[in-house]
Design a protein that fits this description.
Helix content: 55-70%
Structural class: mainly alpha
Shape: elongated
Order of helices and strands: HHHEEEEEEEHH
Number of helices: 5
Strand order of the largest sheet: 1-2-3
Strand content: 5-15%
Radius of gyration: 24 Å
Number of strands: 7
Distance between the termini: 38 Å
Largest sheet: 3 strands, antiparallel
């Protein structure tokens, strides 16, 4: 019994993960902008604090836009696959036993019935051979390969920067909330948004 045939079901889970990423972003946006720093910007008369709030909101939006751009780019960019007639173009049946070139050894994929260039692997989820495959990421419903590896690294970078910004700018509000909670002066909704935001951005 080949258990790998059930791996294709992970693609369905991946679409749920996209919605989960969007939900994390929405909670983070509400906690940082709507609930914390936007009210400071429009209601505070202290010029320095208003300038800080404006800077935080601008940086947050820039990182958020870059994060979403890199995320959806890596989701919708094909990682690169072996052409259907690659075996025929390189010499036919002799590749089944393996052949070497200046770039390295070519393999053979019995599932695709095609030649495999060096660093090419068959993905059991995508059901195809992916060029320079790193791994299949369920968060992006895609493989990380030759054509989208750069966007995947950018997504990780902007996620890290956005996470660090969220932690730094929410920490004072988090401390202030629990100080007020002792006096029973804060709302449960505000606590929920702050806790969810902290959980979603925790490394």
């Amino acid at each position: 019994m080949n258990l790998f045939r059930f791996c294709s079901g992970l693609r369905v889970l991946g679409y749920f993960m996209i919605l989960l990423v969007i939900a994390f972003v929405a909670v983070s946006y509400y906690a940082v902008v709507v609930n914390t720093w936007w009210p400071i910007l429009i209601e505070n008369n202290h010029r320095a604090l208003s300038a800080l709030a404006c800077l935080i909101i601008l940086v947050f939006h820039f990182l958020l836009i870059m994060l979403l751009w890199s995320y959806f780019t890596v989701v919708f960019t094909d990682p690169g696959s072996v052409p259907e007639h690659f075996r025929r173009e390189l010499g036919g049946d002799s590749l089944e036993a393996g052949a070497s070139t200046e770039q390295g050894a070519f393999g053979y994929c019995p599932k695709c019935r095609n030649a495999k260039p060096p660093r090419c692997h068959h993905c059991s989820v995508c059901q195809r051979c992916v060029l320079k495959m790193d791994h299949h990421c369920v968060w992006i419903v895609n493989c990380v390969g030759a054509r989208n590896y750069k966007f995947f690294l950018l997504f990780l970078l902007y996620t890290f920067l956005e996470t660090m910004l969220d932690v730094v700018v929410l920490l004072p509000s988090f401390i202030e909330f629990f100080s007020q909670a002792i006096k029973h002066s804060s709302s449960p909704g505000q606590l929920a948004s702050l806790v969810l935001a902290f959980d979603s951005v925790s490394p």
